[in-house]
Amino acid sequence: MARKVKDPGFGYNSQKNAQTIVNKDGTSNVIHANRRFSADDLYTFFIELAWWQFFVFIIAGYTLLNILFGIVYMLIGIEQVTTTQGDFIGDFLNGFFFSAQTLTTVGYGGMAPKGIAANTIAAFEAMVGLLSFSFITGLLYGRFSKAKASIRFSENLILRDFKEDRALMFRLMNRRKTVMIEPEVSVTLSISEKDKEGEYKRKFYQLKLERDKIMYLPTVWTIVHEIDEGSPLRKYSNKEIEKMDGKLYVLVQYHEESFGQKVYQISSYDFSNLEIDKKYVPSYYFDENGFTVLDHGKLSKVESMN
């Protein structure tokens, strides 16, 4: 008998073209409406940004601040900082570069504020620079020190004959060179079907796995759900499973030795990624010296069962 579970947090309501709630990379696929952005969200926002986006924000913010203060120095009179060039571009560049020196507290000595107005603005800008770089330093530390899993999942699911029955499979590996210690995986199946009233509803099942926990993972792990008498997929043919509005939600946890603590990663599979009567090719082999070689490029590679 298939083990049906309560809603894990996704909701029972569905529709014909309902998208997955969790993306393949583990990010949320939920659109938030009427959500207010607060200052408390800034830290999370910058921590979760991709590295290239993070540095784009830093460079853009740094440039805009210097442009702003450069204009302010022009408005109060560039003569209070340095000798005027007699044209807009020259004076603006002098104001921009003086702002950069003040913001970073470099102070080469070639330009210096003269008068109350220029000194007041320069003092305020120096304080802004100190606070900004302190904030950026904290973000950099947070990004580097944040414990984060780095698991790579196969792009495909396979459905194939297995032992006396059939089985649903996918693979995972560690992107890092470290050994995953005591990895544990949990897989939830979501099936969206019409009820008696003609409305689409989700049903959730906790899938029984061949192995849901191992001691170490230095190479690759094939996750296997055998479609036996206790499987919710038992009553469906391969073609019906292929056309089914079904999704797998995967949660993996393990001890990451790089951070010295347990980390988590989630992922998802849509049955549209299903490949039938295929098997995964071996992803590791031994070289001439007897060392195990793990080929990351073969994680999703399959071949025919025949």
Description:
This protein is α+β, with helices and mostly antiparallel strands. It folds into two domains: 41-145, Helix Hairpins (Orthogonal Bundle), CATH 1.10.287; 148-304, G protein-activated inward rectifier potassium channel 1 (Immunoglobulin-like, Sandwich). Helices cover 28% and strands 29% of the residues. A hairpin with a 4-residue loop joins strand 9 and strand 10. Helix 2 (51-76) crosses helix 3 (88-103) and helix 2 (51-76) runs antiparallel to helix 4.
Summarize the structure.
It is found in: Membrane. With 306 residues, this protein is of the alpha+beta class.
Q: Specify the number of helices.
A: 5
- pLDDT under 50 segments (min length 5)? none
- Quaternary state reads single chain
Largest sheet: 6 strands, antiparallel
- Share of residues in helices: 25-40%
What proportion of the residues form beta strands (DSSP E)?
Answer: 25-35%
Number of domains: 2
Keywords: Ion channel, Ion transport, Membrane, Potassium, Potassium transport, Transmembrane, Transmembrane helix, Transport, Voltage-gated channel
Protein name: Inward rectifier potassium channel
Organism: Tenacibaculum caenipelagi
Membrane topology: Multi-pass membrane protein
List the helices and strands and how they pair.
Layout: E1 4-5, H1 41-48, H2 51-76, H3 88-103, H4 116-145, E2 151-153, E3 157-162, E4 165-174, E5 180-194, E6 200-206, E7 216-217, E8 220-227, H5 238-243, E9 246-256, E10 261-270, E11 274-276, E12 278-280, E13 284-286, E14 292-294, E15 302-304
Parallel strand pairs: 3-11
Antiparallel strand pairs: 1-6, 2-4, 3-4, 4-8, 5-6, 5-7, 5-9, 9-10, 12-15, 13-14
